[in-house]
Design goal:
About 0% of the residues lie in helices and about 40% in strands. The protein is mainly β and about 140 residues long. The protein has one domain. The strands form 2 sheets. Strands 1-2-3-4 form a 4-stranded antiparallel β-sheet, with no helix packed on it. Strands 5, 6, 7 and 8 form a 4-stranded antiparallel β-sheet that branches. A hairpin with a 5-residue loop joins strand 1 and strand 2. The radius of gyration is 15 Å and the shape is globular.
Length: about 140
């Protein structure tokens, strides 16, 4: 349906918020995914590790794959690996707030279509890598 046929494919971000046939989240593992009520596939974060190349990258990007158009859209997060979390004021929404790059997070979709994300192994607000215990709410 989409993606590369070679290993370790890099991401192609394009313009944030714009679907395009060339967009692709790239190779990664331990990402979190969910499906929205329209059947679109969503992807958050994950890890790319290539020990031969000395790479150990964590992502905080959010992607949507539209089943109707067959295209990926980079929705949010950074287009660079290993971003620190931007926390803002606890309990307050903000467009600049974002969890740090991470893998192995858990999450769920609530009855209103909001995505909730908890913990994982990733970067905190100081850029320190470790086990996290933060809770985030994403409203697509």
């Amino acid at each position: 349906m989409s993606g590369s046929n070679v290993i370790n494919a890099p991401a192609t971000y394009g313009t944030q918020g714009t679907a395009a046939s060339g967009n692709n989240p790239g190779a990664r593992s331990a990402a979190f995914s969910w499906t929205d009520p329209s059947g679109n596939f969503w992807l958050f974060g994950g890890h790319f590790g290539n020990s031969d190349a000395g790479i150990d990258d964590y992502f905080n990007d959010v992607w949507e794959y539209s089943v109707s158009s067959g295209q990926w859209t980079w929705v949010g997060g950074s287009d660079m690996p290993n971003p620190s979390g931007t926390y803002g004021t606890l309990g307050t929404n903000g467009s600049g707030h974002a969890p740090g790059g991470r893998r192995y997070a858990v999450g769920w979709l609530d009855g209103s279509g909001n995505f909730w994300l908890f913990s994982g192994d990733g970067f905190d607000s100081a850029g320190t890598l470790g086990y996290l215990s933060d809770l985030w709410k994403f409203q697509p």
